Amino acid sequence: MTALRTSRSARAGQYLALLCYLVFLAFPFLWLLSTAVKPPRELGSLHPSWIPEDPTLDNFRQAFDEQPLLQAAANSLVAALAAAVVAVLIATPMAYVMARNRTRLSTAATGWVVVSQAFPFVLVIIPLFLVLKNLQLINTLSGLIMVYVVWALPFALWMLVGYVRAVPRELEEAAAVDGASRVRTLVSVTAPLLAPGIVATALFAFITAWNEFFFALVLLKTPEKQTLPVVLTHFLGAEGVADLGPLAAAAFLATLPSLVVFAVIQRRITGGMLAGAVKS
User: Fold this and answer.
1) How far is CA 266 from CA 113, 118, 156, 175, 272, in A?
2) What's the rounded Cα separation, in Å, for the pair 57 and 246?
3) Contacts of 113 (CB under 8 A, 6+ apart)
4) Residue 236 forms beta bridges with which residues?
5) What's the Cα-to-Cα distance from 107 to each of 99, 100, 153, rounded to whole Å?
6) What is the per-residue pLDDT for 275?
7) Top-confidence residue, 243 or 153
8) 242 — phi, psi (to 5°)?
């Protein structure tokens, strides 16, 4: 009886800790939503409240009237989707080769991939700008997509190497014994098992590109080509004073695509992350 009570108490404690963690994660999003529907009078109050006394949608209407949010969201969507797809298409065969051929060269390449993630953006922006200028890709979505692909490749490659190593070699050897060619084995055996990992990797590459600000700020100049994170800065006045209501409304809308994508494919993400954590 004592053991049963202890088990119930431990489980209750776990659920309580999980609930506290969920509240902690949801706090910024809920506060952003609360701010987005508050009228100017409540936004300027010295004692802000969680629940608006007089909720309004005027901030959303004002945000769309002041800035081209739809065009910026479309630009961000195109850049993020293209970068994620291209990065995964390039990284998947590279990861397979590196995972199946464990040599000193592949180990060194993996280490370099990890180290490259520590490079600050400001370290590469000048040579990157010059290269894109020579290619006449400044102020184009194509140039920005190219930058996002290059920046996402090391992370995508590092993730996919773990997923490939989690696929047992015995499955490929069995397919070869049955007479399947290498291409047929990769397409029919390996690729379906890598699907959760590929989806998870593509999602993380998409989110990284969707939220990226620095490269888009430097490389895109005309308003009709700017991405959503850059357009959000336009709600700041000349003296750095934020138009808080419309800014919160626009920022709230900018977070919704990420949440929707996570909600739709969360099972594949979990399966892919668990698969990548297991090494054969």
Assistant:
1) 27, 28, 18, 31, 10
2) 10
3) 154, 157, 158
4) 242
5) 9, 11, 17
6) 47
7) 153
8) -85, 140
Radius of gyration of the chain (CA): 24
Say if residues 248 and 36 touch (Cβ distance below 8 Å): yes
The tokens of 80 are what?
A: 């993020």
Residues 6 or more apart whose CB falls under 8 angstroms from that of 159 comprise: 197, 200, 201, 204, 276
**What pTM value is reported for the model?**
0.80
DSSP β-bridge partners for residue 242: 236
| pLDDT, averaged across the chain | 81
Match 């992350």 to its residue by tokens: 273
Beta strands in the chain (DSSP E): none
- Which residues, in sequence order, are CB contacts of 251 under 8 Å at separation 6+? 32, 36, 232
Q: Which pLDDT belongs to residue 277?
A: 41
Q: Which residues contact 168 (CB under 8 A, 6 or more apart)?
A: 280
115-to-111, 200, 248 alpha-carbon distances in Å: 6, 22, 36
User: Cα-Cα-Cα-Cα dihedral of 55, 61, 63, 65, to 10°?
Assistant: -160
Q: How many other CB atoms are there within 10 angstroms of residue 271's CB atom?
A: 16
- pLDDT tens digits for range 110-145: 677 667 667 777 778 888 888 888 989 899 999 999
Enumerate residues 6+ apart whose C-beta is below 8 A from 36. Answer: 59, 60, 245, 248, 249, 251, 252
Span 173-217, pLDDT tens digits: 787 787 777 777 777 778 788 888 888 888 889 988 999 998 999
Phi, psi dihedrals of residue 104, rounded to the nearest 5°: -65, -35
Region 222-239: what's the mean pLDDT? 85
| C-alpha to C-alpha distance for 259 and 181, rounded to whole angstroms | 41
Q: Sorting pLDDT into bands at 50, 70 and 90, what band is 267?
A: low
